[in-house]
Amino acid sequence: MRRTTPGTRSKKQLETRRHIHGVAKTSRHGKPRRPQKSGQESPKGHKKRKGATTRPAGSKRRATGQDSKGVRTRKDLSAERLANGRVKGDPVQVLKSSSTRNAQSTADDATAAFPGNGVGGSREELISKSKKVWERLRLRKDVPVEEKHRMVSRIMELFDGRLREMAVRHDTCRILQWMLKCGTEEHVTSLYSALTPSFVFLAGDKYGHHLALKLLRRASRSQRESLFLACRGHIHALIRMQYGADVLDFAYQTVASAEQKADMLIELVHGKEYALLSALRMKRKRCSGIRDALDVAGDLFRKTLLEATLNVLQAFVNKESSLRTALVHRACREYMEVVSGDSKAMTSFALQFSSRAVCFMHTKDGARFSSLCVLALPENSRIEMLQSLKESSIPIAHDEYGHMLLIALLHTVTNSENVVDFLVNDLLEKVDIFGLASHRHGRLILLQILAPFSHRYFHPDIYGFIESSSEIQAKFPSREEALTAITPKLEALFVERTADCLKDIYASPCLVEFLSAIVEKSPDTCARVVSAVASAMVEDDELLENSLAERNLTWIAKVTVGGPPDTSLALLLKKRLGMKILRQRKLTDTPRKFFTIICDQSKVIGPKGVKRPMPED
């Protein structure tokens, strides 16, 4: 059966309903309409206009200048205006243009924004010809370079004077991108000279912003300078556009120099005061950030500039497309650092952005700003932020910068129940634990619990501001509860996949730090893991051929030498392999630092903790 769109009826259905209900006509939506009796009122929503008369059945409007009531038609009115001199041109062309004006409104707006005559022919003809050339250029991979250049020249001739108009169309925009890719330097220069003045308009257009991104990628140094000059004065408008924010963020993160980034930042946050700063900046070469601009302005304008910065940043709270840009992240981070001495201002500003923490995860400045917000928030707001990150905990833990926020939350939240619930039920339950431990950034969440802020893994220049925060009275207050909660899952991981963990560059430190953390608190668990390590060494002869695994085994032997006998890797190997086999393996051609340390170790821990010499076989 033929399917119809919702709200419409097929021809067969309409005929059936007319036969059953006696319907003479149908409405414009295909619904049946019953014939009205004389004197019956019109149905609701179809009231008769006051003073209107009903045309007799079967009568039609006259094709001449008047209708059935003697009223002049539009054709007569247009002819009369032309005769009186109020309209210039042929009456046929006037009527034709008036009938097609609505259909061409969208394209005419683009033409009005980008005037230009170009070569002869209508827009449709030019686009059709250019597409034929573009198809040859796009689909055929064996086209010589000279032929490609001739095709680009042909399209340039077709678009001559109308490049800016074609840049905002969904089809010709792609053609211009291919021209940038396959054209000569002369073609590229011509395109840049024609499109640079309209770069801001292209950046905010649905289709034109793709061409704007291509212009930024393809631009030389001088052309890039021209594009940034075209954007000057429009930073605040671009960052509030859906597509303009993407173009501005790409320009800031990819092609902008340090000086250009600073200019974009100052123009964004200070807005109307930018002219004042431009005059004050004559004292110094340039302002590198908000703090530098405040120093240049002096105490007289400091308060005014801070209020202007706060007002600008507060306007982005509900603008997600703007909050995801690196420029806004840097502005928020620098503002928090400027007002770091005022705890009230920090807390007030952090409360406004605490619910938008996910938008700041993917940049260095954004993650640092989010961590500063965590340090400034009260305890109940920290718990709310931790709970809001449950659904996105895995991508945040794997993010290059997002994991910093989780570390700050684990370090500051004092309610151990919320920390344990987040780690066990939300993070470790949904993710493959070996995948987390072997991830470059995900492992830092586990290492923060096993070895908090150890300089082996946490550089003080990057994570030091979290550790040294004066707002935190106790460092990592819920560490013991968190370690107890994750111990069973880590034990199962290290027992089942011992060899994989020893050979992995990121998972092996988690194994070593885990044994170091529980060797005295949970000797039974430590003994089971060490036994699994010894079994892997006995079963896998190629394990020690791996230099990384040998180094990790050496580390484990040093860590477990001070614990009970069951937790000592050296003692377990001595019982299972014997000292003669160990000495024989030591004398093989492959250098084995691990066996050297074990065989040269003269003392082990006895049953009662008394050191005694290791017996010979």
**Share of helical residues:** 55-70%
Average pLDDT, rounded to a whole number, is: 76
E-strand count: 4
Number of helices: 37
Structural class: mainly alpha
Q: For the CA atoms, what is the radius of gyration?
A: 38 Å
**Spatial gap, N to C terminus:** 90 Å
Largest beta-sheet details: 2 strands, antiparallel
- Report the portion of residues in β strands: under 5%
- Spatial ordering of strands, largest sheet: 1-2
Shape: globular
Q: What ranges have pLDDT less than 50 throughout 5 or more consecutive residues?
A: 19-28, 42-46, 58-69, 85-118, 583-592, 601-617
Describe it.
This protein has 617 residues and is mainly alpha-helical. The strands form 2 sheets. A two-stranded antiparallel ribbon has the order 1-2. Strands 3-4 form a two-stranded antiparallel ribbon. A hairpin with a 5-residue loop joins strand 3 and strand 4.
Name its key features:
617 residues, disordered C terminus, mainly alpha, 2% strand, globular
Short description:
The protein has 617 residues and is an all-alpha fold. Strands 1-2 form a two-stranded antiparallel sheet.
